[in-house]
Amino acid sequence: MNFHLTTIACKTDQPIDIIDITDDVRAALEATGLKQGTVTLLSRHTTACININEREEQLKQDMTTFLKRFIPKDGDWLHNLDTIDGRDNAHSHLLGLFMTSSETVPFADGNLLLGQWQSIFFIELDGPREKREVLVHIQGE
Questions:
Q1: Cα separation, 138 vs 26, whole angstroms
Q2: Sorted alphabetically, which Pfam families does this protein's record hold (predicted)?
Q3: Other beta carbons less than 10 A from residue 29's beta carbon
């Protein structure tokens, strides 16, 4: 069994930003030369998540609209009364409760075993941010 560790850097431009990182994950996998195993992705942030879903522009807009309505930024959140870094981001942390910080995807013959409509997304909940990181752990043979 071989193990490889790398990161994917993301710059986000919107308060909620849905970025397709599937090609970056494929490139990281290809660089290893491994043929079968798993890729585990981890967002290294409490206000950014990893998700597998369909890549379609109107659906991405629907997802953003849903997240904004589900937990509004202007709620009466205690975390915003005394922020650590000056960001009123309690809503971002609360959204993170309902999302995943990691995903694991199997691969065979050097290819990710995603479904026809599946893509891997980095979802920013507290942007814009200059630098975000996704840890990519690849294990296999």
A1: 11
A2: YjbQ
A3: 23
Among 83, 84, 95, residue whose Cα is nearest residue 15? 95
What are the residue ranges in the chain where pLDDT is below 70? none
Going by their DSSP bridges, the two strands 102-108 and 17-20 should be labelled as unpaired
What does DSSP assign to residue 98?
T
* CB-based contacts of 67, cutoff 8 Å, min separation 6: 16, 95, 125
Region at 109 (left for phi over 0; alpha for psi -120 to 50; beta for the rest):
left
- What pLDDT does 83 receive? 84
